[in-house]
Amino acid sequence: MSPSRTAQRTVRDVVFVDGVRTPFGKAGDKGIYAGTRADDLVVKCIRELMRRNPSLPAERVDEVAIAATTQTGDQGLTIGRTAALLAGLPRTVPGFAIDRMCAGAMTAVTTTASGIGFGAYDVVIAGGVEHMGNHPMGAGADPNPRFMSERLVDPAALNMGNTAENLHDRFPAITKERADAYAASSQAKLAAAYAEGQIQGDLVPVATMKPGQGWTVHSVDEPPRPGTTVEDLAGLKTPFRAHGRVTAGNAAGLNDGATVALLAAEDTAGELGLPVKMRMVSYAFAGVEPEVMGIGPVPATEKALKNAGLDISDIGLFEINEAFAVQVLSFLDHFGIADDDPRVNRYGGAIAVGHPLASSGVRLMTQLARQFEQDPSVRYGITTMCIGLGMGATVIWENPHHADYGATSTTDSTSEEGAAA
User: With 90 as the cut, is the pLDDT of residue 324 above it?
Assistant: First the structure.
């Protein structure tokens, strides 16, 4: 009989090394990615990520996780694996697909980060894609009739615009005028960030070809409307309810785009000479009433803060996905944060830049990482988003440029709502 052995358990710090994305496009026949495959957008991102990090041998990538909300057609066939092969990664690199609607890329990051923390991986690529022109939200879905027959959810819960109107009902202090003002501010902040060169460094130029137009290289986002004013937004139609408050101007649009991030164990990053842009502190997901799914970031953030032993006052930067202005404002009101607080979405948000569903989580991370570099006085930042069907997701990050970086240990946990230490 062989001698008894005790298995080793590895728990390590997880760092965000780098992240890139395609310019986001408008969904539909007139959008920049009409006729472009979703998987090709992911491939562009993976190749650029590897090019930007030449000290990383391709064979050291342990996993590729790519999210998509609609996993059919050019977003199907286990897109994490197919995109890895198409990008030229070694065949020994595995991959998988994942779905958590709007938080797909964020879930790809947290899932693989837990694998790093547990010792299953050293280096991973995680991200998401959504081509809403090829795959309109909900197309092909077949909701179980029990949802309606047993009144498990209100029919409005299956339409995100209706859930945003419900959120306005629940919080009457969040008026249409307030939502429009927030939306105009998002457009202005994104325009300023572009003018300062804060966005371009994360973008992967994409060449597309349309019959009769030839090839075009796209190097900026298509959705933004710089110069948008509150007066411009005031007269827009409210498509989800007569005399409602949610419009195309104070909500994110229908968009196409892809994102990917490079994550590693901190010791592996040091070994390979990879940069450390952020360290993961904790993350959490939470379920809420599907009828008011936009409130999801509140309990998710409370759980993530508790897991990390932090308070909302410890957070110096917020990247909140702007599915709807009312959703962001409900989060700010809950935590006593002003609408124009300079810690919030400094470079604008999804109302301006777009929200290609499963890809957006990594966009929040790349923008937070850039802000960390610009502002070493901030130690902790949050990326958070609401999720269709009633959920929220939050990840807390630490700034490696802060004087006290790494001074305290993280929670020893690799659970779904725990810290990825």
Answer: yes
For the chain, the 3-state helix, strand and coil shares in percent, each to the nearest 5, are 35, 20, 45
Predicted local distance difference test score (pLDDT) of residue 213 = 83
Closest CA to 43 of 161, 246, 207: 207
How confident is the model over 245-279, as pLDDT tens digits? 999 999 999 999 999 999 999 999 999 999 999 99
Taking Cα atoms as reference points, which of 15, 41, 39 lies closest to residue 112?
A: 15
Among 93, 21, 23, 86, CA closest to 56: 93
Alpha carbon distance 144, 336 (integer Å): 39
Q: Using DSSP bridges, classify how beta strands 255-265 and 25-26 pair: parallel, antiparallel or unpaired.
A: antiparallel
Q: H or E stretch including 285?
A: strand 278-287
With 0.85 as the threshold, say if the pTM is over it.
yes
- Write out the H or E segment, with its range, that includes residue 394: strand 391-398
Taking only Cα atoms into account, the Rg of the chain, rounded to an integer number of angstroms, comes to 21
Q: Nearest CA to 157 among 149, 165, 146?
A: 165
Q: Helices marked H in 196-281 — which ranges?
A: 230-234, 266-272
Active-site amino acid positions: 102, 355, 386
